[in-house]
Amino acid sequence: MKKFLLVLLFAVSSLRAVVVDLNDKEFDAAVLSSPIPVIVKLYTPRCGACIDFKQPFILASNMLSQYKFVELDIVKNSRIRERYQVRGVPSVLFFWKGKLIYRHTGSMSVKQLSELTKQYFSA
Question: For residue 77, what are the domain limits?
Answer without folding.
Answer: 17-121
